[in-house]
Amino acid sequence: MCDRIKPAQREMTQNHTMQKAGLFIDRRRTLPDYRALTRQPLRWMLPWLIVWVLCGVALASWSVLLDRVALIGRMLAPVAQARMEIALERAFSGRGPDEVRLAVLRKARTGNQHGPPLLPEETAMRIDGTSLHLNMQALGANVASSSDLTGIVSWRHAQPDGGATQLWVCGHAQPPAGAILADPQNLTHVAPELLPSNCRASR
Given 32, 55, 101, 185, which is the most exposed site by the fewest CB atoms within 10 A? Predict the structure, then answer.
């Protein structure tokens, strides 16, 4: 019994000595004061407030992203088909398709007679020489979508000086160095944040 008391007495004496010397650290003071959290609610509310603000910003940009994806989905296939037809026409005749050729392409269908035509109607896609202008509202009239995408996106034909490469400049983008725009007129007036990155103005 005495052996059990002696270590306890020794520890108490040692702690008392350390207190006098100013070397003793009260372990209870190192524990967090949980009651202080209720007295100062900003300490635990501020992190959650930051999370809520970030979630609100993400949700606001999410709707813009959905509209941008819808815009790209509507114009991807018609633009690809029109660029191919214009390139073929220029390879054989040296100019863009005329009205007769465009009328044939707007009635022709790929394999499936019930499928979409090769080119949309003139109200949805206007081909001016070798450039094309898409009316997004008319182009997506038969597409079930919650977003109301309106406006025109221009694809202007450009060609490097002295080269055989053909390219199209989308929207407000600038042509590569050395390329000459066949049609400098840009009719694009879709909201810039809805345009894909390759259709925005370079900064």
Answer: 32
133's enclosing H/E stretch is: strand 131-135
The answer to whether 130 and 96 are in contact (CB under 8 A) is: yes
Please name which of 137, 202, 145, 149 lies closest in space to residue 172, comparing C-alpha atoms. Answer: 202
The span from the CA of 74 to the CA of 146, in Å, is 13
Report phi then psi at 60, rounded to 5.
-65, -40
Structure tokens at 153: 């996106």
Q: How far is CA 174 from CA 30, 53, 178, in A?
A: 63, 36, 11
List, for residues 102-130, the tens digit of each pLDDT value. 999 888 887 767 777 888 998 899 998 88
Domain boundaries, the chain: 40-75+123-199
